[in-house]
Amino acid sequence: MRIDTKNPVITARGVTKNYGALRAVDGLSFQVRAGTCFGLLGPNGAGKSTMMKMLYGKAERTAAPDEELLVFGYDPARDALAIKALSGMAQQEDSLDSELDVLTNMLLYARFYGIPKKEALRRTHDLLEFMELDGKQRARIRELSGGMKRRLVIARALLNEPKLLILDEPTNGLDPQVRHLIWDRLHSLRAGGTTVLISTHYMDEAYHLCDELVIMDQGRAVLQGNPRELVEKNIERYALQIFTRASLAPARRKNAQIRIEEAGGMLYIYADTLPPLEKLAAALTSRDYILRQTNLEDLFLRATGKGLNDEQ
Ligand code: ADP
Predict the structure, then answer these.
(1) Ligand 1 site-directed mutation target among 50, 62, 172, 215, most atoms within 8 Å of CB
(2) What are 202-224's pLDDT values in tens digits?
(3) Could you tell me which residues come within 8 angstroms of residue 306 by beta carbon, excluding any fewer than 6 positions away?
């Protein structure tokens, strides 16, 4: 597929969505370049699904000055069908028909896109193999595991050979094996030229998959950019994460080399070099702490004062 590197696949400028008095998305601006994987990372309730729904016209935007949303140059409020023809969507709530088998679910969806039966059969065969679901054609949906259903929803979203694949929390609640399989498949799709947009509250998923991302909280962009660069530029290099409140006194002593944050019952101590953290760790029992490099979770904590997966 030819990749258009000049025109972004998605341009969002000042996009806003109110549900009554609640501002679910608050002036979000970002661009998604063709052939990249872009992420919306944030805790539950940050506005990720709402942002995605606006992209394919499932949720109406709230009017705002100078706001704009274009997907392949189309405004989803007017041309949702043109966007749907070029995109595949794997949504959180699974819309599979649980009484029907895998093959029938795929063929019904293909009919919606007007794909001729012979071609639909060919694509279904290839996609089920791609998502490691071959052999499941005749299984009813209710007989599938959670991980299989999720893979099927992705396979189904690929039936119309989309240029843009939109995935809402693709690996939420899945075991590590299935997560890695899905990550691997998303990597190969992107390598083949498909633009991928994912929402996730897993920082490791965002870090691993995304070329660029927006970190969201309460509808707003907290930070955006390349995940590695964001971590490099915006936070110390190392974190000492302490699980219990035992032996914290030394850490609390004034020390210009470290920075302390507290969230979700844990203490995080940050430094640009290891020695000050190693010194503090030496006074702790090994099961009470982890000494590690910093990551997107630390960035989120620094920006918002709370953890990505804390109860809101
Ligand atoms: P996320 O996908 O990041 O978990 P959502 O976009 O689902 O976040 O939700 C953002 C906020 O909007 C939440 O406070 C949620 O309760 C609210 N919300 C989402 N959908 C609706 C709706 N249809 N009506 C009213 N409030 C909604």
Answers:
(1) 50
(2) 999 999 999 999 999 999 999 99
(3) 43, 263, 264, 300
